[in-house]
Amino acid sequence: MKSSTLPMLAAAALIGLGAQPALAQFKTQGVTDNEIVIGTHMDLSGPLKAWGVPATNGMKLAIAQINDDGGINGRKIRLVNEDDGYDPKKAVLITQKLIELDKVFAIVSAMGSATTLAPMPLVQSAGLLHLFPITAAEFTFKMDPAKPEDRLKFNMFSPYYDTMRLGIKYVIEKTQPKKPCIVYQDDEMGKNFTDAYTDQLKAMNIPSATMVSFKRGATDFNSQVARMKADGCDMVALGSVVRESVGITTAAQKLGWKPTFVVSSPSYVPDFPQLGKETTEGIYGVGQTEIFYADTATGEVKKFVEDYKKMFGIDANQQSTAGYNGVMVFAHFAKKAGKALTTESLMTALESGETFDDIFGGAPISFSKDNHLGVSAAVIGQIKDGRWTTIAKNQSYKTEK
């Protein structure tokens, strides 16, 4: 990008955020006779790169497989991927570039709550689809009937609220703690976790206890851990991503404090026990699908693992499936939309109730005109001998299935 372009985009992005002009029309761009251009932005260099890098790789593998198989109704997919460093301001700038310069058809599988929330008004005001962000925050799928632009956003990840509430419910029922507490990232993602904590304890007639926060990107958790230990917390919900979760459990170990921990989807990944080692043993977690390992994978998952290793030279992990599935769901419904692919025809296909089943054992994904959240069921696991082991499948805090 030329240096002179950057200030102009920054100014335009800020104006767009300030004014948030009303949506006039759903817009179609980035579609030619031979190509569909999609855009995304992820953290490839900052605190969430343990998610961003493999998720990006997953997208690239899915695109390669789809294109090798003839593409989508004769069109090949081209991905424009940018590094936002988990910085909302940078995400806004990048999104402006994707829309105005790269002319993408849709934003697919952008990552992070804060980095999705900040630029979403730009996508909506442009009349473009915002699909399957790798965050389970409610704003990514919740629709206001008075806002036609809300038809443009779809997600397929079990909400942070649901997975955290399910995890808290399960662990309280199983371990009977006297003082369940929560430590959380102080942002939009963290609010989902604290709402889940407060609501679930209220539903179980248990008084709320210590609720302590940290800033996004924090590296020192000694004060938060010391406070929870001093307050007598014997169960702690971690409203955090991988690096921060490891920091919290490591700080707890140094203080000789051993509460029962439970994590939600941002830390329900193989990297957590790999990085945290013995500090994570026994921790409970809730996530979208069962966690697989390269040396035990079978069937279609084994092929995915082999293809990923061949393309990138490293083993696939749970994070890679998020990007892979995002592209596969996009392709599935884009094919259903037909040869005359437009933003509106893809929305119609998505809202048809048609079901998509992934290869990783996740719950079926489907949308309707009134529901743009594709799935809400989750898996419960526990770390045993350094690996996630599935305890229960297709669970909800509302009704166990």
Account of the 3D structure:
- With 401 residues, this protein is of the alpha/beta class.
- The chain folds into two domains: 5-158 and 298-370, Rossmann fold (3-Layer(aba) Sandwich); 160-287 and 379-395, Response regulator (Rossmann fold), CATH 3.40.50.2300.
- The protein has 13 helices and twelve strands.
- It has a seven-stranded mixed sheet, sandwiched between helices.
- α6 packs across α7 and α12 (318-337) packs across α13.
- The N and C termini lie far apart (50 Å).
Note the main attributes of this structure:
401 residues, alpha/beta, Rossmann fold, 40% helix, 2 domains, 13 helices
**Helicity range:** 40-55%
Count of runs of 4 or more consecutive helical residues: 13
Give the CATH superfamily of the largest domain: Response regulator
Largest sheet: 7 strands, mixed
- The end-to-end distance, rounded to whole angstroms, is 50 Å
Tell me the count of domains: 2
Q: Give the overall pLDDT as a whole number.
A: 92
Number of strands: 12
Strand order of the largest sheet: 7-6-8-9-10-11-12
Oligomer: single chain
Q: Report the CATH topology name of the largest domain.
A: Rossmann fold
What is the top-level CATH class of the largest domain?
Alpha Beta
